[in-house]
Design goal:
Blueprint (H helix, E strand, L loop, with lengths): L7 E6 L5 H8 L19 E4 L4 E4 L10 H16 L4 E9 L6 H12 L4 E6 L6 H18 L3 E3 L8 H13 L1
Parallel strand pairs: 1-3, 1-4, 4-5, 5-6
Antiparallel strand pairs: 2-3
Length: about 180
């Protein structure tokens, strides 16, 4: 891992939820962070130095067609990342907007709370929701975030929804 010489923003979530695509969209790059349609392609903690801070793209948790031994290695990487003495300003905890938070997501949010790590919940792939489903998911996510004392935003790497809001949040925590 690089020396923790600047504030860091970590991107966390289930496998194939759009962590790398979100980083690319936030940085206006098409393929800086490698994306794939198959889960489990991010197998290490990938760092992106963007000057005033550093992004950390964490391996996903949950479903991925990889051996159990590899999943355990990923878990150790992520645990090691969070245990290291880094200037962690924010975790962007990403969930799929089309689904309620999974048990793994709830567990991760509980971990972030227990460690007093600031986070924002980003509901990715919101462009795939119709109006009725979006209304339903908004209620589900508002209820979840109210229980977790957290804020959330919808995000789409396809349409750009939520990009400016998330950039503003990142700038405020890194420069504030």
């Amino acid at each position: 891992m690089p020396w923790p010489d600047r504030p860091e923003i970590a991107f966390s979530g289930r496998s194939n939820v759009g962590k790398s695509a979100m980083i690319n969209k936030l940085l206006n790059r098409k393929s800086l962070a490698r994306t794939s349609s198959s889960p489990g392609k991010t197998a290490t903690v990938n760092f992106y130095n963007i000057g005033f801070c550093r992004f950390a793209d964490l391996p996903g948790y949950g479903y991925a067609k990889v051996p159990r031994k590899e999943k355990l290695r990923w878990a150790e990487l992520v645990e090691g990342y969070f245990a290291s003495q880094r200037d962690m300003r924010l975790v962007v905890q990403i969930i799929d907007a089309r689904r309620a938070p999974a048990k793994d997501d709830v567990d991760m949010v509980g971990f972030l709370h227990a460690q007093n790590i600031p986070f924002i919940l980003a509901a990715s792939k919101c462009d795939k929701l119709n109006v009725s489903d979006r209304r339903t998911q908004t209620k589900v996510l508002q209820d979840f975030c109210r229980c977790q004392n957290a804020e959330f935003l919808f995000f789409s790497s396809l349409t750009g929804e939520g990009v400016q809001q998330l950039r503003k949040k990142i700038l405020s925590v890194c420069r504030g």
